[in-house]
Design a protein that fits this description.
GTP Cyclohydrolase I, Chain A, domain 1; disordered N terminus; alpha+beta; single chain; 8 helices; binds zinc ion
């Protein structure tokens, strides 16, 4: 199913006719709509003005998408592995994967990139699966430290590799858009497991591959 994530105009035609069955869209309970209206009012606006009438419904559905990771087990993406790797026993690295998440303290966006590496122990996965694992955890309310740790641990638990390295660099909307309003400041977190934790040479090597000497 293809869903339109565009913040404006995607469903104007239908939304003004509330009796039309909204095909393919999840129903939004009244108490959820009321909660968003309360927040709009609290923010200082009038939830009854025309431009905001359908906002509660859109916001509710958008949050279901932002948090769609709660409905999946990211580890399932790692259940199909390949043993035939032609003797390859070096680092597998997926670099600078873009992602979006939301911080659990302010519900503000976290946008950044992740580099995920592992040193296979006979079994490898399709490379896109690493990005799917990342997204499964990112599409939940997060703190960056936990996101980093969860991605690494998931790969460790399912692939049992000789090492896992995850480095995430992100900007936090709660820092850039409020409070100290610090633009252009990136937070970097990393989680090393196995040889990347125990062996400084392996760690230096993987960090250098990630472009982080
Ligand atoms: Zn925050």
């Amino acid at each position: 199913m293809v869903r339109n994530l565009c913040p404006v105009g995607d469903d104007h035609e239908h939304d003004h006719d509330h009796d039309v069955l909204e095909e393919g869209k999840i129903p939004v309970p009244d108490h959820v709509l009321a909660a968003v209206r309360t927040l709009l009012e609290w923010s200082g606006d009038d939830p009854q003005r025309e431009g905001l009438l359908d906002t509660p419904k859109r916001v509710a559905r958008a949050w279901k998408e932002y948090c769609s990771g709660y409905e999946m087990d990211p580890g399932l993406h790692l259940s199909r592995t390949f043993e035939e790797v032609g003797g390859y026993d070096e680092v597998v690295l997926l670099k600078n994967i873009p992602f979006q998440s939301h911080c659990e303290h302010h519900l503000a966006p976290i946008t950044g990139t992740a580099s995920i590496a592992y040193l296979p122990n006979e079994r490898v996965v399709g490379i896109s699966k690493l990005a799917r694992v990342l997204n499964g955890f990112a599409q939940r309310l997060q703190v960056q430290e936990r996101l980093t740790a969860e991605v690494a641990q998931c790969i460790q638990d399912h692939l049992h590799p000789r090492g896992v390295a995850v480095v995430i660099e992100a900007q936090h909307g709660c820092m850039t858009g409020r409070g100290v309003r610090t633009h252009g400041v990136n937070m970097v977190t990393s989680r090393m497991l196995g040889v990347f934790l125990d062996d400084p040479r392996s760690r230096r090597e993987v960090l250098s591959l990630m472009g982080r000497p």
